[in-house]
Structure formats: structure tokens, C-alpha cells
Amino acid sequence: METKSKTKTLMKLFLSTLYISFFTFGGGFVIITFMKKKFVDELNWISEDEMLDLTALAQSSPGAIAVNAAVLVGWRVAGFAGMLTAVIGTILPPMLILTIISFFYSAFVSNIYAALLLKGMQAGVAAVILDVVCDLGSNIMKMHRFYYIIIMLAAFIAVFFFEINVIYIILAAALFGIVLEILQHTRRKQI
Asked: Nearest Cα to 31, choosing from 10, 41, 16?
């Protein structure tokens, strides 16, 4: 019975990541939105706080955000088998699409309709990314932790107004998180 349940979970995980990856255009942040809707809101496999943590880890790790997120979500849902399942489901659609496009590349490059289609998709992707920012930002606001809000605003100002490289912002936020955890751990030990 246990094996049947795990197989069913792995199949659902594979089909979910395959579907999400197949219909997601625009990069990692877009896929994160769909993963949140599927795994947090619909299936309740992951909490919102965990999804925020997984998103932060996926973004700060080297490699594609979509694959990193699939690794973390798959591991969280079903361990090593879940990780492999989620990664395969996530990388299969782009591999198939890129293989097809590579065969017909010259036709795509010179086709005005393909260019217009891609321009239209850019606008849709921007809207989805804005949705992710608003959704995750509102979750941080709900936590009522002043320092998280300050970090979020400082990161936005650093990128938008001062054009500071995102890598430095991620490293600074990670350093802040480490220092904060050490301080909280020390405070707990004293109590």
C-alpha cells in the first residue's frame, strides 16, 4: 500500500512539473508562481513559508531557477525519488521545444509572426512576474517582521535605483539571515 501511494505521489509530481514546465514561458520566477499555485494552494504539499524559503534557495543557488526549484520541491515532497521525478518533469518540455526549434531555427528567425508572438509573450511574462512579486511580497508583509520588510525595500532600491548586481544583494541578504539566526540562537540559549 505504501509503495502504491508513493508511486501515485511521484506520478502526480511528474505530471504536475511536466505540465507547469510545458506551459511556462519567461523563466524561473514564472515557474515558481505556478509551482506555488499547484503545490501550496492546490495540493497542500508545501506551506507558503516553505515555498518562500525554497524560492530563496532556488534563486541563490547556481543554475536555472526552475530546475533548482524542482530539485527542492521534489526533495521536500518525496525525497530523492521526488527530486529526480520533478527535475525530469521540469527539463523535458524545454528540451523537446528547443530541439524542435533548433531544426527550424532559420524559419523562426525570419518569420515576422514568430517575432510578434514572442513580443506578446514578453508582456504576459512581465504580468506573471509582477504577480509573483506581489504575492510573495504580501506574504512577507503578513509576517509583520520589520527587518524582512526593510530587507525587501532595500533590495528593491538597490536594484532599481542604484543598479547593484543581484548577486551582491543575494549575498548580503544571506549574510543578514545568518547573522540573525546566530543572534536568535544565542538569545534562546541564554533563556
From this structure: 16
In angstroms, the CA 24 to CA 28 distance is 9
- In DSSP notation, 157-172 reads HHHHTT---HHHHHHH
Describe the crossing of helices 48-60 and 65-103 by its angle, rounded to 10 degrees.
Answer: 60
Q: Given the C-alpha cell 530587507, which residue does it identify?
A: 151
- C-alpha 109/C-alpha 97 separation (Å) is 15
Q: Using an 8 Å Cβ cutoff, are 140 and 149 in contact?
A: yes
> What per-residue confidence (pLDDT) applies to 1?
44
Q: Which long-range contacts (CB under 8 A, 24 or more apart) does 56-64 make?
A: 56/173, 58/28, 58/32, 59/28, 59/170, 60/170, 60/174, 64/28
CA distance 89 to 83: 10
Rounded CA-CA distance 137/31 in Å is: 17
Question: Using CA atoms, how far apart are residues 132 and 31, in angstroms rounded to an integer?
Answer: 10
Grid look-up 532599481 returns: 160
Residue that wins the pLDDT comparison between 27 and 10: 10
The pLDDT of residue 49 is 86
Terminal-residue alpha carbon distance, the chain? 46
pTM over 0.85: no
- Residues, the chain: 191
